[in-house]
Design a protein that fits this description.
It is a single chain. Helix content is 74%, strand content 0%. It has helices spanning 17-54, 60-92, 94-104, 116-122, 129-158, 161-174, 176-182. The chain is elongated, with a radius of gyration of 22 Å.
């Protein structure tokens, strides 16, 4: 299917329902991610103040580790927020690009055999968008992991034994969703 960035637009064009729902699902996920990553940035900013005020010179190595984790998490949260917004815009433009292409197309097949990503590529998501998806995911994951690590490190070095144990268990439990995403399912199709 040819791409027509500046020419005719088929104004009565509608995306196939599956593609439309796929784009809408991505947009909802990305909008939620933008909010979550922005909130994480706020939390990291607050934690940085706590870490700087509550740790003395005798704990300089711990303080340095906490600040490094927090700075990484803060930067990645901001990056994930920006990438979420860029990807939301990308998926929102698919109907317009498809309408432009439909104006040139001589055939629009009702059935294609492809992965979810290939369907989006066929309906004119930019090929480089996958790099943005990876940037978004890695930034958000790193921000979450660094936030969890910095809070855990602070608690383990500053709190009572019971709190240390509870925080360690909670930290281990909180990273399980990331493991679920990273470890491929046996019958997964992407």
């Amino acid at each position: 299917m040819a791409f027509n960035p500046f020419g005719a637009v088929k104004t009565s064009y509608e995306l196939p329902p599956l593609v439309d729902k796929c784009c809408a699902a991505w947009i909802r996920t990305l909008q939620t991610s933008a909010v979550v990553s922005a909130l994480l940035a706020v939390v990291q900013g607050q934690l940085m103040g706590v870490f700087k005020q509550n740790l003395g010179p005798s704990e300089s190595k711990i303080r340095e580790a906490l600040l490094i984790l927090n700075y990484i998490a803060l930067i990645c949260s901001i990056g994930a927020t920006m990438t979420s917004l860029l990807l939301s815009d990308e998926f929102s433009e698919i109907p317009m690009r498809s309408a432009r292409a439909a104006a040139l197309a001589t055939d629009n097949p009702d059935v294609i055999v492809a992965t979810n990503w290939r369907v989006l590529l066929y309906w004119h998501v930019k090929p480089k968008t996958k790099l943005l998806v990876w940037h978004w995911f890695v930034s958000l994951a790193v921000a979450c992991l660094c936030t969890i690590a910095s809070v855990t490190l602070y608690a383990v070095t500053q709190e009572t034994l019971a709190t240390r144990i509870a925080i360690s268990v909670a930290a281990g439990f909180s990273v399980l969703p990331l493991v679920w995403v990273i470890v491929p399912a046996s019958s997964s199709v992407t």
